């Protein structure tokens, strides 16, 4: 008789990860953020409709990836800090302020946290901006992708991105990228959430699974 | 103006000083590998569904300790507030204590502010605490309730992640229960349909999982009040004892008997009349 008692399946005790695809792209006059909706714990899907695009302010959103608990908590803390900051300066916060707040937390607690947030939004000074904050770095980029599914679409986004797209082209670009990643990554799937931010505000949209574009599939 | 104070858990709460010692004991010397005692897990199936007028929560009633059933009629649906109930899966002690603390905090809040607590407040407090303890508290909770903003169903994981969904299953039997829920869930069901759905989902968990079993408890929460149905469905296997386990007097032979009188001295006697009201 073996000494080991029956071992629990991984999904009972494993941490809930968002094993994801997230993407943020600037266009002429704003940004478009996109994410999939799958949350996994080991091999089991815990939530198939989670919205990973979290508002930090009216015109600043962030995309969550990595450990679900860590990412949600960072987003909540930065939401609060940004609120206080915008009351103090009596104006809407800048996107780079939001990104710096996220970067500060990610860098200070680098060892303990495992979450990667992409911050994107629109402000009066510099228009649409996208910031990547992986592991405590702060880098402004024309577009950023993150999550486990992003590895499959690096080539696609590098080849297809063009400067100064229109809003429609940008939204299509984001949806196409998400679809391709969800098609190849086991930890991404479900529906696609798309948020478009420009000077008029933020517009949220949900593209259901069967409405996603179809690519070559035997 | 009084601060709306929330009772802080004692600072001496979780003490991780022994974790290095435990590590050494378990992995250290080759001859003496000492295994830590296993905490009692509830190895459970719990489920919740939002229907037209409120929320229906369901749970099985088996608590296991490794392979032995420790409790056949354990209550997994815990009271949080008059309009909020919580099902707990994971380590039994953790879920009990966590829900107790949450309930106390919310009672203090409602006494201070004069309002009924909102479900989202309970979720925020829970998420805060579980994240702070970095997954050391093994509690997987489903919170359901009805407040002034409507009916809500949330789940909070042991690491502090939170999800808001219209139907949910948790625990070791959650895969089977989720199958039933995914198949038959509809928006705005009526009460009987919702109760049947949750009950069947828990039943599927009981049939397909060794850690879940015995009876099914249901809890229906609406704006008007709470209906805690315990048990909703009893297991058809009723374990009746076959014989009495009491020993007959005379089974143990008595060899000798000595009686010692205790000297009691009456020092002081007082009589206090009780106010019985009507006289």
UniProtKB/TrEMBL annotation, chain A:
Keywords: Cytoplasm, Hydrolase, Immunity, Nucleus, Protease, Proteasome, Threonine protease, Zymogen. It catalyses: Cleavage of peptide bonds with very broad specificity. The active site is at residue 20. GO terms for biological process: immune system process; proteolysis involved in protein catabolic process. The keyword Zinc does not apply. It is found in: Cytoplasm; Nucleus. GO terms for molecular function: threonine-type endopeptidase activity. It comes from the Eukaryota. Gene3D superfamilies: Glutamine Phosphoribosylpyrophosphate, subunit 1, domain 1. Pfam families: Proteasome. GO terms for cellular component: cytoplasm; nucleus; proteasome core complex. The proteasome is a multicatalytic proteinase complex which is characterized by its ability to cleave peptides with Arg, Phe, Tyr, Leu, and Glu adjacent to the leaving group at neutral or slightly basic pH. The proteasome has an ATP-dependent proteolytic activity. This subunit is involved in antigen processing to generate class I binding peptides. Belongs to the peptidase T1B family. Component of the proteasome complex. The 26S proteasome consists of a 20S proteasome core and two 19S regulatory subunits. The 20S proteasome core is composed of 28 subunits that are arranged in four stacked rings, resulting in a barrel-shaped structure. The two end rings are each formed by seven alpha subunits, and the two central rings are each formed by seven beta subunits. The catalytic chamber with the active sites is on the inside of the barrel. Component of the immunoproteasome, where it displaces the equivalent housekeeping subunit PSMB6. PANTHER family: METALLOPROTEASE TLDD, PROTEASOME SUBUNIT BETA. This is Proteasome subunit beta. It comes from Culter alburnus (Topmouth culter).
From TrEMBL, chain B:
The active site is at residue 44. The keyword Iron does not apply. PROSITE patterns: PROTEASOME_BETA_1 (PS00854), PROTEASOME_BETA_2 (PS51476). The keyword Transmembrane helix does not apply. GO terms for biological process: proteolysis involved in protein catabolic process. InterPro entries: Ntn_hydrolases_N, Pept_T1A_subB, Proteasome_bsu_C, Proteasome_bsu_CS, Proteasome_sua/b, Proteasome_suB-type. Keywords: Cytoplasm, Hydrolase, Nucleus, Protease, Proteasome, Threonine protease. Pfam families: Pr_beta_C, Proteasome. One of its GO terms (cellular component) is proteasome core complex. One of its GO terms (molecular function) is threonine-type endopeptidase activity. It is found in: Cytoplasm; Nucleus. Residues 240-271 form the Proteasome beta subunit C-terminal domain. It catalyses: Cleavage of peptide bonds with very broad specificity. It comes from the Eukaryota. Belongs to the peptidase T1B family. Component of the proteasome, a multicatalytic proteinase complex which is characterized by its ability to cleave peptides with Arg, Phe, Tyr, Leu, and Glu adjacent to the leaving group at neutral or slightly basic pH. The proteasome has an ATP-dependent proteolytic activity. The proteasome is a multicatalytic proteinase complex which is characterized by its ability to cleave peptides with Arg, Phe, Tyr, Leu, and Glu adjacent to the leaving group at neutral or slightly basic pH. The proteasome has an ATP-dependent proteolytic activity. This subunit is involved in antigen processing to generate class I binding peptides. Component of the proteasome complex. This is Proteasome subunit beta. It comes from Culter alburnus (Topmouth culter).
